[in-house]
Amino acid sequence: MGQHSRQRCAGKCAFHGPPLFEKHKQGCQCVKHRQHETAPQNGKKICTRCSEEKELSEFHRRGRKDGRPRPSCIACRKEQEFGLSPKQQDELLASQGGGCAICRYIPQAGERLYIDHDHNDNRVRGFLCNPCNRALGLFKDDLGRVLAAARYLGGNRLVADHLDVAQKARVRSSLLSPIS
Questions:
Q1: Consecutive H or E run containing 90
Q2: At the fourth CATH level, which superfamily is domain 83-140?
Q3: Which of 48, 62, 145, 147 could form a disulfide with 139 if both were Cys (CB 3.0 to 4.6 A apart)?
């Protein structure tokens, strides 16, 4: 492993030549730059984006072969990917009562909620537990499929105490129409 790998770096880091970008150096996966990452101490790690020391549970893991925590924490990654600051994430979660937007499950220690977003415009819809997030993915975010499943499960009736009157009317009308 003494040889420096160029595969992921493509010559953009200081080791391979100019230009040197600090952010690139932080994100570089080549062997030379991975050496600067220190092993987590006492179950904690410092996020490379916000520079805060956080529990390891607040970091995603890399791939299956390399189980080390990612350089930046989950909150910072969500901010980068979805444009939600940690404060906005907290506000959204609080507006959902601290649990899943669909089933209201509140995560236990070591569990987390996932950001659900529209895959067309990347607009955030809310936080979901793993089963609800996976279910939406399996339904391919298609409301018609979700309503068809509700019709199938409910025998043309839908028990939805959490829906407001307008939502119930829309659901009833869609349940009465044929599946397309």
A1: helix 86-95
A2: His-Me finger endonucleases (3.40.1800.10)
A3: 145
